[in-house]
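Quick review question:
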């Protein structure tokens, strides 16, 4: 006891600076020793504190399956039993793994998508069916005037630019019509639908001309004082859009046009809307953003309900299949006129992995090959034929109507040849609907960015096509093939919100990865709520323009968002559709 007291008093003597009588040099020596000891202790505790805070997420960080609270409170009764089961499953990244390594490979990130529950997709399929049974054109046009004039609409307008971006505009409008309980209008240009010669649209939708006609017929202005007004909101103008700050379900204008929705992200921004009514509507359609395994194939199911190949395109698809069975796998290579041996090697290895993952035991599986680079087709076909039957649409050999001048409305721009390929534009539609016939898997490879909007929609529609009614055991996978040179800096070069891996491109993505063949979500995420998701600085800055303060782990500062929405001026832009 005394020795301990002596040690304590000795330490106090060093730190206090109250020196016993000694020589001046000895006092200076002891002062220096005391200072060094203090600095050492302080440095040790500082490093320990920093290491703990760097590894253990803050209380705001949302990790499904842990006791940490979610980014916005969700009543426990709203979480389905499947969510709890998945949250506790081995598909989640273990906490000790997060502590051991502060980054992950693409394949490790994709592990979450290996146990997809198709129950959610079937639920969304029923939701879409029920919506159109109530708000479809065939029902609404027969409503009595008093009810029709109270009806709301959402319009989707597309040009004839890139296939993936333009189709997402239509699908986003369809999704928004469901969230808002409104009818769907598909916009026309000079009396024609977008890509009308190649895509057929659902009869559940209206045209704007028909709505204008019915508005006059039912005398909505004269009898009920309701003018046909369209409210517009542009997602690509972050300082003006109301996607996060307004309750769209309370908008009174008869028509809503949500512009600039060129990918899977825009519609999913409503998942973070400050109004609980909007968040609930969005999560009903898109699932909880933190539970990546249980998110439905929303856009695939919407495509299945809203679009289909035109008669001429379907003939070309049937001609290519030559009466044989549907293909087992699709390989899509976005090469931008390059022939990368590394990309080819990685893609071939990924196809082999997809065969193994789906337990395909067929002597020669049928593989659909789609690419924007004709020279690559010849090279990769030779290697694919070593173990598979290759199915490819050769437009030079096809003599259907679609190849004889019917595609003149889609002129190929010389400026876009590198982007879209040298083939006639209409070929992309045949390739798309052919590729979406795959029964088991879609593999996406690329020269630069993997999982473009075109590849996403192929995989989404293929998955929806293969999901039978009441079938929860479907084995369908979407794979991304990365050659090692694309991953020198991890996923940080997967920029652009239209690319499926963009939400994983931040600091949790390991640099210098070898070739990767990763399971991929059929619904591209729009936020960073899942494990191993993290944003790049470019997206953190971009979110600031929307009023969202995003942490380096992708956590939304909700107080900041509420404060931003409260302080901003609500933008209301309208167009008078009729003058009556």
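Suggested answer, residue by residue:
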């Amino acid at each position: 006891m005394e020795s301990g007291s002596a040690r304590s008093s000795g330490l106090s003597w060093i730190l206090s600076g109250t020196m016993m009588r000694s020589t001046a040099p000895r006092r200076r020596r002891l002062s220096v020793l005391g200072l060094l000891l203090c600095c050492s202790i302080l440095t040790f505790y500082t490093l320990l504190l920093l290491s703990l805070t760097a590894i253990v997420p803050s209380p705001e960080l949302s990790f499904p399956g842990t006791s940490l609270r979610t980014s916005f409170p969700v009543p426990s009764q709203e979480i389905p039993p499947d969510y709890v089961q998945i949250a506790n499953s081995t598909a989640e990244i273990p906490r000790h793994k997060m502590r051991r390594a502060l980054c992950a490979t693409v394949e490790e990130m994709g592990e979450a998508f290996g146990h997809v529950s198709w129950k959610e997709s079937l639920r969304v399929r029923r939701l879409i069916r029920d919506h159109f049974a109530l708000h479809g054109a065939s029902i609404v046009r027969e409503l009595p005037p008093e009810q029709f004039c109270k009806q709301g609409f959402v319009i989707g307008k597309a040009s004839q630019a890139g296939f993936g971006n333009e189709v997402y505009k239509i699908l986003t409008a369809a999704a928004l019509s469901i969230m808002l309980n409104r009818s769907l209008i598909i916009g026309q240009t000079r009396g024609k639908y977008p890509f009308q010669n190649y895509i057929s649209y659902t009869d559940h939708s209206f045209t704007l001309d028909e709505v204008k006609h019915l508005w006059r017929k039912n005398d909505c202005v004269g009898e009920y004082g309701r003018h046909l007004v369209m409210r517009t909101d542009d997602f690509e103008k972050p300082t003006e859009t109301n996607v996060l700050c307004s309750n769209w379900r309370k908008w009174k204008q008869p028509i809503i046009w949500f512009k600039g929705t060129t990918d899977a992200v825009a519609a999913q921004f409503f998942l973070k809307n400050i109004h609980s009514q909007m968040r609930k509507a969005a999560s009903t359609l898109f699932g909880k953003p933190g539970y990546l395994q249980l998110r439905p194939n929303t856009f695939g199911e919407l495509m299945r309900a809203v679009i289909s190949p035109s008669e001429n395109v379907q003939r070309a698809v049937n001609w290519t299949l030559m009466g044989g069975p549907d293909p087992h796998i699709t390989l899509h290579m976005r090469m931008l006129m390059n022939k990368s041996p590394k990309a080819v090697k990685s893609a071939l290895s990924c196809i082999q992995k997809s065969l193994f993952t789906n337990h395909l035991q067929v002597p020669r599986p049928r593989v659909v090959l789609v690419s924007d680079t004709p020279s690559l087709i010849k090279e990769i076909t030779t290697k694919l034929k070593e173990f598979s039957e290759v199915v490819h649409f050769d437009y030079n050999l096809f003599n259907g109507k679609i190849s004889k001048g019917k595609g003149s409305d889609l002129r190929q721009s010389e400026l876009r040849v590198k982007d879209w390929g040298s083939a006639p534009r209409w070929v992309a539609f045949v390739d798309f609907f052919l590729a979406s016939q795959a029964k088991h898997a879609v593999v996406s490879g690329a020269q630069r960015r993997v999982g473009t909007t075109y590849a996403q929609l192929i995989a989404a529609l293929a998955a929806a096509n293969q999901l039978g009614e009441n079938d929860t055991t479907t084995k369908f996978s979407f794979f991304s093939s990365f050659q090692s040179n694309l991953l020198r800096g991890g996923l940080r070069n997967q920029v652009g919100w239209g690319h499926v891996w963009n939400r994983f491109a931040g600091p949790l993505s390991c640099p210098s990865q070898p070739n990767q063949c990763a399971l991929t979500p059929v619904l591209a995420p729009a936020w960073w709520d899942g494990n191993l998701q993290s944003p790049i600085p470019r997206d953190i800055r971009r979110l600031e323009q929307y009023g969202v303060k995003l942490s380096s782990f992708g956590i939304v500062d909700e107080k900041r968002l509420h404060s931003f929405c409260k302080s901003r001026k609500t933008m209301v832009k309208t167009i008078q559709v009729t003058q009556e």
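Why it works: The longest strand covers residues 229-234. The chain has 22 helices and 13 strands.
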